[in-house]
Design goal:
Number of domains: 1
Radius of gyration: 19 Å
Number of helices: 12
Order of helices and strands: HHHHHHHHHHHH
Shape: globular
Number of strands: 0
Low-confidence stretches: none
Oligomer: single chain
Structural class: mainly alpha
């Protein structure tokens, strides 16, 4: 299987796991912490020769991996905060259309083509993401919250920075150690927060949190590593790759949610899924 398809499968697994966590009574913050530890361990296990800290610091991508690792953990907590204060609908839309920022970087920063077919495909992809994020029972949250905008900017900048690092500083041979260190950084900041919020430490006593976190860590590592490999292979331009990845996850996650959890689509969501299929076909031809 191609790295892009594997990245889509792993990213879909992340969505499915978060959906299942509520049914399995998994405490999400604890699972997230375990997830980063497992993702880092997987990366280190796959590195042929583990570098020392001075050797790590010599890599060109070293300071940027610290920034991205911090952004990973911060974005998780911001996403949860936005869900609580702004609601599911605005937060879901913001997180999905954040793909605009790495696409914009690819087109403006790296001069990727922007023909009519690609514009049509990206437009259909964005429309499908917006529609699929809507729910029939959009909850009303009193007052205006800037948090969805923060989620949009933060998630988009994280992906854009990852794209920039991959193109400017990350040889394909270093993808394992980069991914492992990035997740180690995220885990470190997660542990630092746990030391501050000691009341949450009791969550780590539950086996379900460890099992859920381990599964999430495997999927999370695969999602990042295979995305880096797909970018390195350059089978598609980066702008097309990010769009295909996002709508591929939407399509597969929707189908699995229907089959495994009995979730039902509204007419608007069904239209979004249909547009996603058309966008995927158009983008592959772009």
């Amino acid at each position: 299987m191609t790295p892009l398809l594997l990245s889509i499968l792993c990213s879909t697994a992340i969505v499915m796991l978060f959906t299942a966590f509520e049914k399995w009574k998994v405490d999400v913050p604890a699972a997230i912490l375990v997830n980063y530890a497992v993702a880092a361990a997987v990366g280190l296990a796959l590195v042929p020769a583990r570098p020392s800290l001075p050797e790590l610091a010599a890599f060109h991508w070293f300071p940027f991996s610290i920034v991205i690792g911090l952004m990973y953990i911060v974005m998780f907590y911001l996403l949860n905060l936005s869900l609580a204060r702004a609601g599911v609908g605005p937060t879901a839309v913001a997180s999905k259309i954040s793909v605009l920022l790495p696409i914009l970087l690819a087109v403006v920063g790296y001069g990727e083509s922007l023909g009519a077919l690609k514009l049509l495909g990206i437009g259909l992809a964005l429309a499908s993401l917006l529609l699929s994020a809507r729910k029939g029972d959009q909850e009303a949250v009193a007052g205006f919250s800037p948090l969805p905008l923060v989620v949009f900017v933060g998630a988009g900048l994280t992906d854009a920075l990852l794209l920039w690092v991959q193109k400017e500083h990350l040889p394909s041979a270093e993808a394992f150690v980069f991914s492992a260190f990035l997740f180690s950084v995220a885990g470190f900041f997660g542990l630092a927060r746990l030391a501050w919020r000691r009341d949450e430490a009791r969550w780590l006593a539950r086996p379900a949190n460890w099992l859920g976190g381990a599964a999430l860590g495997l999927a999370n590592f695969g999602s990042l590593y295979f995305m880096l490999e797909a970018l390195a292979q350059a089978r598609f331009e980066s702008s097309v790759l990010f769009a295909i990845n996002n709508i591929g996850v939407v399509l597969l996650a929707t189908l699995l949610a229907l089959a495994l959890f009995g979730q039902r689509l509204t007419r608007v969501q069904a239209l979004g899924v249909g547009l996603a299929a058309v966008a995927l076909w158009v983008l592959q031809m772009a």
